[in-house]
Specification:
With about 50 residues, this protein is mainly α. It is built from one helix and no strands. The longest helix has 21 residues.
Length: about 50
Amino acid sequence: MAEAFDFPDDLCEAQLQLHQARAGLRAFLSDPALPWSVEPHDGWADPQDA
């Protein structure tokens, strides 16, 4: 069985904050009300169509 380690409290807290930030970002980006782009643009031309 693997040996258990006691991690420093500040490291555990930083890991928790990272998980919370990632979850918040995921929730924010999954909002269907967000536009695709701040400023819409035409995109790129396909050189094979020219």
